[in-house]
Write a structure and sequence with these properties.
It is built from 18 helices and 20 strands. It is of the alpha/beta class and about 625 residues long. It is a multi-pass membrane protein.
């Protein structure tokens, strides 16, 4: 056998090692490993489980923080756990929206007739590491402990999640390990007399992922994330909307605050790209560390306090901003005009009256309002009495009421019945008047249901697959479901749901302004919209007379005085040409906003003159 054939066999051997054991059983030359040798090292329990003919997974950041295990390498690490008593009522409501959607679909006499959906819902703690563990547990079957390990493929068809973009990237990469849709790995040994086909392995598994809150533009790359869909607009559209907002209000000198993750990184990069051909300049870009410390927060606040930029853009989530704002309020920093992104602009956890002096006037873009008619009633049924064995429900009660239905020495909380009434005061959980992320979750489940319904309606001989075949209802492959998901088009609550070639949905945002409510708290008021289907330049519609700005002012912040404008333009030019000479001159020009000495004025005039002369020289 020639070296080419040996190389081919070696490639095949390496390829085989990357396949799941269930696929190895279909190759006669490789023996399946004994099931007794494949053991579960750690267990990761789902928060909610329901059996069904077809199973979908759900990943939600029900807790704020992750309790990191001790990884000293001398013993087996303990299971990864989310920090208790730091539950996010909003994310808990998102998970309940998924459960409600599945319940409605299973009761629907038309949609998925004679078939039912099941689910496994996990808590990601808002961290990629836990999201990774969650999706692996989904792939292990309905019951991780009782399943036959390493012997067959998972019954999972799709995953709803994750929330953050970094989590979704991790989940997508893991799901891709179990896919190569319709790709044939073929190696041909070529001799002088004939071609011999040594082997051909075709893999058909491709697990679809639909995110309800991941907006990173990077996830639109079909080469890297071929199975990713989302029911929320990409950040490409959101940064375009923010750039247009800054230009509209002539905010040309702004600060930028972002999270230390893929979402914040790509969003900031996209915004800077959108601002290149405008007059807007970014005074500073600060990063909230993933593992937040007070020292890091105070350093960022010092930059904000000393900067002349009074408009600050935020590319961070509620979980990232919560500890930062706790320290921010102690520093008594006011007068900042915040511009928030969709992940933050409707965070009801910041709607208390104590936040208004610091966050009042915030403006930003939010996902479109939706309507889930039964959500409020469904949430009322979730209590410790109904779910006595569910730890997440117990923690929700402890978070809402400060008491425990099952008190112990660990919780150290006073007892309660577990049947207390959920009131309007629990707005972070019970606010169902204008669901946004919860509505996205709801849409995502229905998108899977409609795609599955269309798949089951396929007529033999008229199908979309090889030889006009259809999927087998008792053996649906995830890649077959993805085909129908790409084509799905339906209406829900008066809205059309469909996906483009990149898996993105129609870009549409409400413009939200944080105003003082009747009780002194923060009210989220809609003051306009951004419609991505409109022509360029016509997407933004703002009702300026309805806006209340920072400091309870009726006029927009001045972030464009003449001195700041000149410095901004100098810096922007210096980034392009003659960097060293320009940057040496700029710091001398403006030491304090609005104040120019005689020397400073002369320096400014000379700097502008030389920069102008340089521009003319370059053009010639």
């Amino acid at each position: 056998m020639t070296s080419l054939a040996l190389l081919c066999l070696l490639y095949f051997a390496v390829s085989v090692l990357t396949l799941t054991d269930s696929l190895l059983s279909s190759i006669s030359t490789a023996a399946a490993p004994a099931a007794s040798k494949c053991t579960l090292l750690n267990s990761f329990q789902p928060g909610f489980v329901v059996q069904g003919d077809y199973v979908i997974g759900g990943i939600f950041p029900i807790h704020f923080n992750l309790k990191m295990p001790d990884l000293n390498g001398t013993y087996r690490p303990p299971p990864i756990n989310c920090n208790g008593h730091r539950i996010d009522p909003r994310a808990f409501r998102w998970a309940q929206s998924m459960r409600l959607a599945v319940e409605e679909i299973n009761q629907n006499p038309v949609l998925l007739q004679n078939h039912t959906l099941g689910y496994k819902i996990f808590d990601s703690c808002g961290y990629p590491l836990t999201g990774q563990r969650a999706v692996l547990s989904m792939l292990n079957g309905v019951s991780e402990e009782n399943s036959s390990m390493c012997t067959n493929a998972s019954s999972l068809l799709a995953v709803i999640g994750a929330s953050g973009s970094s989590q979704s990237i991790v989940v997508s990469k893991i799901l891709q390990t179990f896919r190569i849709p319709m790709v044939t790995v073929t190696c041909i040994y070529v001799s002088h007399h004939k071609n011999v086909l040594l082997f051909s392995v075709t893999l058909h598994s491709v697990f679809t992922q639909i995110s309800y809150a991941s907006t990173c533009a990077c996830l639109s790359d079909r080469q890297k994330y071929p199975t990713f869909f989302r029911v929320i607009p990409s950040d490409d559209y959101q940064v375009k909307a923010i750039a247009q907002l800054l230009v509209h209000f002539n905010w040309i000198w702004v600060g930028l605050l972002r999270g230390d993750n893929d979402y914040g990184r790509f969003a900031a990069k996209g915004l800077l790209r959108e601002l290149q051909d405008t007059k807007v300049c970014v005074a500073y870009q600060e990063i909230i560390p993933l593992l937040y410390t007070r020292q890091a927060g105070l350093r960022i606040m010092k930059v904000m306090r000393n900067s002349t930029a009074k408009v600050v853009l935020v590319f961070a989530t509620q979980g990232e901003m919560t500890p930062f704002l706790r320290d921010y309020m102690t520093q008594n920093i006011t007068g900042i005009q915040w511009v928030a992104i969709s992940a933050l602009v409707k965070a009801s956890v910041f709607s208390g009256r104590e936040y208004y002096p610091y966050l009042g006037g915030t403006i930003g873009f939010s996902n479109r309002n939706g309507h889930i008619s039964r959500l409020g009633d469904f949430l009322q049924t979730v209590n410790p009495k109904t779910y006595p064995d569910n730890e997440l429900v117990h923690e929700l009660w402890e978070s809402l009421y400060g008491c425990s239905p099952f008190p112990s020495s660990v919780t150290q909380m006073p007892p309660c019945s577990g049947q207390e009434s959920l009131l309007e005061q629990h707005s972070a959980y019970m606010n169902t008047s204008s669901p946004r992320v919860a509505y996205n979750v709801y849409k995502a489940v229905y998108a899977i249901a409609h795609s599955l319904h269309n798949l089951l309606l396929c007529q033999p001989g008229r199908g979309p697959f090889q030889d006009n075949s259809c999927a087998q209802s008792n053996n649906i492959q995830p890649w077959q479901l993805q085909h129908y998901l790409q084509e799905v088009n339906f209406h829900i609550a008066g809205e059309e749901v469909a996906f483009d070639a990149k898996g993105d949905s129609v870009p549409y945002f409400d413009i939200i302004n944080w105003q003082r409510g009747t009780k002194g708290n923060i009210a989220f008021v809609s003051v306009g919209l951004f419609d991505g289907t409109k022509a360029i330049g016509e997407e933004l519609l703002i009702q300026e007379d309805r806006i209340m700005w920072a400091g309870h002012q009726s006029e927009a912040s001045c972030s464009h005085c003449v001195f700041t404008f000149i410095r901004c333009q100098l810096l922007k030019f210096c980034r392009l040409r003659w960097r060293c000479q320009c940057l040496c001159a700029v710091p001398v020009v403006f030491q304090d906003p609005g104040r120019l000495s005689v020397v400073g004025s002369l320096s400014a005039a000379l700097t502008v003159y030389h920069v102008t002369a340089a521009k003319l020289a370059i053009r010639q």
